[in-house]
Design brief:
binds ligand PMT, 12 strands, alpha/beta, two-stranded antiparallel ribbon, Rossmann fold, 29% strand, FMN binding, magnesium, 222 residues
Length: 222
């Protein structure tokens, strides 16, 4: 029986993709299914945490959590996170948030008159970096989805955003990453790392949740 290590803590967790609207019928999206984030929300809940899930559109049933907020775009996800974060002890960013959005979404369906169409994109805010910069920040756990040089990019992201922990995964390969039922993670924190090998996302989520609880409690319980 898992110990309920996180009883009395509130965890804010993002999951799934965001959709960046081009016009009323089209969007720019990504391949996140929400599986990793939903499994992690459940696993943290099993450790006793009150989980507030902020999720982009997925085809998954919503896991049993204290609160579930469904959003579509990165800007909506940021607004929901900023509204909830003050009451939370931990922030876990599993979502695949679009880095860019169309600069001027069309009010009506774009017609196929032109031979070529150029889209102008503008940067979205980095929700995780904004949360980590709050004073005081919650305990922050980010993800890094990389196709190459996974460790180097993940370590750079942890430092640049000032995160307590980062869970790195390889995407775009034969196994693991987006959409699939299995994944592998390498988790980094100040002075430590743990390799969690390829396994079903439900089991991986339980191992990651236990590791997060361990690091968080080490920091916050005297
Ligand atoms: O949903 P699945 O199909 O199960 O796939 C799981 C997953 C591959 C999506 C997941 O394991 C994962 O890696 N999630 C993070 C995806 C991502 O966008 O990584 P990134 O390296 O681009 O972003 C780094 C971190 O910053 C992430 O924690 C991300 O949530 C956060 N971020 C990024 C951009 C942004 N504008 N705001 C953010 O908060």
């Amino acid at each position: 029986l898992a110990e309920r290590l996180l009883t009395g803590t509130r965890v804010l967790l993002t999951a799934g993709p965001t959709r960046e609207l081009l016009d009323p019928v089209r969007y720019l999206g990504n391949r996140s299914s929400g599986r990793m984030g939903y499994a992690l929300a459940s696993a943290l809940g099993h450790l006793g945490a009150q989980v507030v899930l902020v999720s982009g559109p997925t085809a998954l049933p919503v896991p049993k959590v204290a609160e579930s907020i469904q959003v579509e775009t990165a800007l909506e996800m940021r607004a929901a996170v900023m509204e909830q974060v003050a009451s939370c002890d931990l922030f876990v960013a599993t979502a695949a948030v679009a880095d860019y959005r169309p600069a001027e979404p069309a009010a009506r369906k774009i017609k196929k008159d032109a031979e070529e169409l150029t889209l102008r994109l503008v940067r979205n805010p980095d929700i995780l970096a904004e949360v980590a910069a709050l004073t005081p920040p919650p305990f922050t756990v980010g993800f890094a989805a990389e196709t190459d040089e996974v460790e180097r990019h993940a370590l750079a992201k942890r430092t640049a955003k000032g995160l307590d922990m980062i869970a790195a995964n390889r995407v775009g390969g034969e196994r693991g990453g987006f959409e699939r039922d299995e994944n592998a993670l390498t988790v980094f924190w100040d002075g430590g790392r743990r390799d969690l090998p390829m396994m079903p996302k439900t089991r991986l989520a339980r191992e990651l949740a236990a590791l997060i609880a361990e690091r968080y409690l080490e920091r916050h319980v005297a």
